[in-house]
Amino acid sequence: MGLLTIIRKARLKEKQVRILMLGLDNAGKTTICKAILGEDVDEVSPTLGFNIRTIVHQGYSLNVWDIGGQTSLRPYWRNYFEQTDAVIWVVDSSDRARMEDCRRELHELLKEERLMGASLLVYANKQDIGNAMTVDEISTALDLPALTSSHHWSIQPCSARYVVPSAPPGAASAAQPTNPNGTPASSALNLSNRCGKADPRILAGLDWVVGEVGSRVYYGTQNAFTPVPDAPIPAAP
Ligand SMILES: Nc1nc2c(ncn2[C@@H]2O[C@H](COP(=O)(O)OP(=O)(O)OP(=O)(O)O)[C@@H](O)[C@H]2O)c(=O)[nH]1
Ligand SMILES: [Mg+2]
């Protein structure tokens, strides 16, 4: 076992996980981090360098490096590859025009030797937008099956701007307005909720990451994963 592997396993035993969050610009990386941390998702601007966010999840400290995805910034991604346990690749599911760019960048990235042991979680973000591609369509468009031989991967649909409203104490959730089909009306979606909880599908993705890297401490078996189904969320207003 190489020295780097020993260091990595020691770090994982201390429940420290290093995650690179990457993807094209405008995909929603920073918004996802803010949603998880319960911050105001209305206040985001393009990331010109990087943000490091620590997310405590299931007893693990996930040190998430949220790095700007603009074309001019992508050559700098390589500066962050060392010691990465997992890559979270965020996709704007409504950006059909750039899906091929997205595929190319992802496959280029994962050729990198320093990322060889890293697990890959794809967030198919912006599922609240009407024309969003489904998980199956995105898996095909990004050619995810071709990555199976080199990386454990999973894909999770989500919406960083869908925040579960935090009901005031005693308030009946039934008071929320709903559409005739039972889905929340757009006002109940609370797309700019400032203290609600993140879309549970985002957290399900983190569960998978933690299960993956955790299993590696014990000489890594593939982590079984059932994605949380795509909830019926109406289009953003
Ligand atoms: N409708 C909708 N909009 C979203 C969602 N996630 C992010 N956005 C919006 O998409 C835009 C870009 O979000 P960012 O989080 O800044 O994207 P990013 O991937 O961090 O972009 P860079 O920092 O430039 O790489 C913002 O206007 C967000 O409000 C989502 O799930 N649904
Ligand atoms: Mg950003």
Automatic annotation (TrEMBL):
SMART domains (UniProt xref): ARF, SAR
Record NCBIfam families: small_GTP
A Pfam family assignment: Arf
Ligand binding (GTP): 23-30, 69, 125-128
Compositionally biased spans, kind Polar residues: 178-188
Annotated GO biological process: establishment of cell polarity
InterPro entries found in the cross-reference section: Arl2, ARL2/3, P-loop_NTPase, Small_GTP-bd, Small_GTPase_ARF/SAR
Keywords of the record: GTP-binding, Lipoprotein, Magnesium, Metal-binding, Myristate, Nucleotide-binding
Annotated segments matching region Disordered: 167-188
Protein name: GTP-binding protein
Family recorded in the similarity comment: Belongs to the small GTPase superfamily. Arf family.
Residues that, per the record, bind Mg(2+): 30, 47
GO molecular function: GTP binding; GTPase activity; metal ion binding
Superkingdom of origin: Eukaryota
